[in-house]
Here is the input.
Amino acid sequence: MTTIARSEVLLCEARFYAFHGVMPQERKVGAEYTVSVTVGYDYAKAAESDEVDDTLNYAELYELVKHEMQQPSKLLEHVALRMGEAIFQKWSQAAYADIRVMKNNPPMGAACAGAGVNLHLVNDKTKKC
Here is the structure.
């Protein structure tokens, strides 16, 4: 007998062009972003059934992230929190979400690949982490 101790659905480094930023120019011109999401989700039923309806569909997860990236915000912290709240609203059985939003080549005069935020949210409905 096999026991699944932990299962997650992943969206790795999805790329978007969006209009987030504190400076008005950032919200006007936009920038490239990379988003990664890990959702703690018990997909034991899906592993047994081989049916997409029994899991958290990563194509739907991508569309949710895409929708949130299209809503301009000043802070990436706000964008990440909106994503997490939307994930828990759509998939109430999700235990947690790790969300990373990176602005590629940020306009701060530094030579770096990106700057951004990581957010770890625990779904109060499940209390798993």
